[in-house]
Amino acid sequence: MKKAVIFDMDGVIVFSESHYRQRRKLFFAQHDILLTDEFQKKLVGSNSRDMFELLIEDVEKRKWLIEQYAEFRANYPIDYREIFNAEMVPTLEALANQGIRMAVASSSSLENIQMILTENQILSYFELLVSGDKFQRSKPNPEIYQYTVKKLDLTPDDCLVVEDSSIGISAAVNADLEVLALNNDDPAATVPIQSVSEVLKYIEL
């Protein structure tokens, strides 16, 4: 039986990807930079730092745009309660009742992770929050998951990951973790699932 479940956040805890996609598209259009749908798909599971490195070669221009994007996001709020995955609360409660430990490992900033979990009143379920900002490279680099497992003082065999993006699935698999793929049929995942509540069936993997 697994001892811990590690959750990705965007696309698992909150269904935020379409909102992020629209926000990015609007911002870059203001700066005459075309963000294609194909490129946007590559960003799912990644973070803004990697996005700007892929898009902007000039370091000074990139730095300036990152500052502008931070200001733009502050003026483009997202209601994370409206896009909260309602299945999370009963799932987390059931895991807690079984003594399963829980963590979040997300490419988002720690501030954003804490804010989203607090707004949806589920912060107390998680003993560890890990942000991709902590590492030189976020997902698909496996370091975020390797670090999370180590901080929990567990082994990969003790943990189960819930991810939605292929980038995140790759990160978990490369960290030797079993991963449930929410609404994603990526063959690299251990098991595809359609609902986060299905994690309760697989903690005995």
Automatic annotation (TrEMBL):
Cofactor(s), names only, from the UniProt record: Mg(2+)
Alphabetized UniProt keyword annotations: Carbohydrate metabolism, Magnesium, Metal-binding
Coiled-coil boundaries: none
Domain of life: Bacteria
Family annotation (NCBIfam families): HAD-SF-IA-v1, HAD-SF-IA-v3
Recorded family membership: Belongs to the HAD-like hydrolase superfamily. CbbY/CbbZ/Gph/YieH family.
Name the record gives this protein: HAD family phosphatase
UniProt organism field: Candidatus Enterococcus lowellii
Lineage start: Bacteria, Bacillati, Bacillota, Bacilli, Lactobacillales
